[in-house]
Amino acid sequence: MHHPPVTIQDKQFSIYLPERKILHSVEIVAARISHDYRGKQPLFLSVLNGSFMFASDLMKEMSIPCEISFIRLSSYEEMQSTGKVKEIIGLKEEIKGRHVVVVEDIVDTGHTIAGLLPQLQAKGPASVEVATLLIKPDSLQHNLSIKYPALSIANDFVVGYGLDYNGLGRNLRDIYKVM
Ligand code: 5GP
Ligand code: MG
Ligand code: MG
């Protein structure tokens, strides 16, 4: 299939990860999680907005009973300007005693996940692990164990399959990187 470059506002993007490669990686992660959580009925916590498409495909590939709920984190701008940790918005489920799998779009520096995990741990879950569509190992600044990364990428800015540039590009089936 041909993937011409995509223009979003002032930037041009070229094809990086085609849909079939993404979906293959998602299947592998889903199989690993299904194996590891047999009999545990995990609760996926999908971090909006970026992880919605990954969360959807991941759930469809799960072969064990599981639940999903959606959360948001307070804005990045706020965190940068105040140095505060992003706060969880919209967590309705009781996670005490549950096996939680956080579903993220991308782990870059790791600041977001490093701030989120202690907040979840404080609520007394049975376990917490992270499934992320993408990870940028060269950017990671925290000693985090990300148990379920679907794809490792170089330190490039990417869009598509849920990831945005200024709110745009989330609808792309494939992942593109900035040129
Ligand atoms: P971290 O806190 O790990 O540095 O970054 C996590 C957040 O930064 C992601 O959830 C995402 O919103 C944003 N981000 C980091 N790298 C990229 C990228 O390459 N593309 C897009 N669209 N967002 C990114
Ligand atoms: Mg995210
Ligand atoms: Mg974003």
Automatic annotation (TrEMBL):
The EC designation for this entry is 2.4.2.8
Catalysed reactions, as listed in the record: IMP + diphosphate = hypoxanthine + 5-phospho-alpha-D-ribose 1-diphosphate; GMP + diphosphate = guanine + 5-phospho-alpha-D-ribose 1-diphosphate
Tell me the CDD domains matching this sequence. PRTases_typeI
Q: What residues does the Phosphoribosyltransferase domain cover?
A: 19-165
Protein name stated in the entry: Hypoxanthine phosphoribosyltransferase
**Where does it reside?**
Cytoplasm
Short name of one Pfam family for this protein?
Pribosyltran
Q: Which InterPro entries match?
A: HGPRT (IPR050408), Hxn_phspho_trans (IPR005904), PRTase-like (IPR029057), PRTase_dom (IPR000836)
State a single Gene Ontology molecular function: nucleotide binding
Q: Name one GO cellular component term.
A: cytosol
Cofactor(s) listed: Mg(2+)
Named in its record, the pathway it takes part in is: Purine metabolism; IMP biosynthesis via salvage pathway; IMP from hypoxanthine: step 1/1
Q: Which residues form a coiled coil?
A: none
* Encoding gene per record: hpt
EC top class, in one word?
A: transferase
User: What keywords sit in the KW lines?
Assistant: Cytoplasm, Glycosyltransferase, Magnesium, Metal-binding, Nucleotide-binding, Purine salvage, Transferase
Gene Ontology biological-process entries: GMP salvage; guanine salvage; hypoxanthine metabolic process; IMP salvage; purine ribonucleoside salvage
Family from the record: Belongs to the purine/pyrimidine phosphoribosyltransferase family.
